[in-house]
Design goal:
The chain is mainly alpha-helical. It is built from ten helices and four strands, in the order αααααααβαβαβαβ. The structure holds zinc ion.
Length: 253
């Protein structure tokens, strides 16, 4: 409905591609860390520079390229699917220059979130390496320990979660940016199956359409959590009625 299935399929494809490429990037980061230790005798002064080295490693391993490719290119299909979704719901939208500026700003924020976990990994690895270099670790021990520490960073552990969250936020933000100029109502759209959370199941079964105030409450409800497969979609009131939805001014889920 409203192209939601196609959008979620596109999301899964983006995530699968991202995961595959990220596994390659992570293996490459590990290889480059290892190479650095093979080629250098680490003094405490070197260790204090390791954040710079690690950022170069992220760059060389393709971490930033991968993230930017997802945000700059892979999102494009979603962008056109969102437009067709609006059309099915009764609104023939065009993306204006202002809309595109807002969308680009959002993409910059998202790319920056990935840079932040990169820098924070760099800082913590530098601190650890400095301590190891003061504690008489051999280079081999330092290499092994830093390889282990890298596995614990958010770059290694949470990049996929961050990507999934970023995509969901992008979808809803593009919808919200377009909806600002439209006089429509909101539907809560998505599957209701065994893994649907209680909150989402409760909203879905109301079979209702909402005004923007209620939509905002639903959207920001912490019970949806990060991995929610549902989106709030704007449609014309006529469309909502013709699909059998009735208006509710509030919900308690
Ligand atoms: Zn949900």
């Amino acid at each position: 409905m409203l192209g939601h299935e196609e959008q979620q399929k596109a999301v899964e494809e983006i995530i699968n591609k991202f995961n595959g490429n990220m596994a390659v990037v992570i293996a490459e980061i590990q290889r480059l860390i290892n190479r650095y230790f093979m080629e250098n005798n680490i003094s405490p002064a070197d260790a204090l520079n390791f954040d710079v080295i690690f950022n170069q490693i992220l760059q060389e391993a393709g971490y930033y390229t991968l993230v930017n490719e997802m945000v700059d290119k892979d999102y494009n299909e979603l962008f056109s699917l969102i437009k067709s979704g609006f059309k099915e719901g009764g609104f023939d939208i065009t993306y204006t220059a202002d809309d595109l500026t807002l969308v680009q700003a959002l993409k910059n924020v998202q790319s920056n979130n990935f840079s932040v976990i990169g820098s924070s990994a760099a800082t913590s690895l530098r601190e650890n390496l400095y301590r190891y270099s003061l504690s008489d670790f051999t280079v081999d021990q330092m290499a092994a320990q830093i390889a282990e520490d890298f596995k614990g960073t958010n770059v290694a552990r949470h990049s996929t979660t961050l990507a999934r969250t970023a995509i969901a936020e992008y979808q809803q933000a593009v919808i919200d940016i377009e909806a600002k100029d439209l006089d429509g109502v909101w539907l809560y759209i998505g599957v209701d199956d065994n893994s649907t959370r209680d909150f989402c199941h409760c909203v879905l079964k109301q079979n209702a359409y909402f005004d923007t105030a209620t939509k905002n409450k639903i959207e920001s409800d912490p019970k949806r959590k990060y991995n929610c497969r549902h989106r709030l979609r704007m449609v014309t009131e006529d469309y909502a009625k013709s699909e059998g939805y009735t208006f509710k001014s509030s919900i308690s889920c």
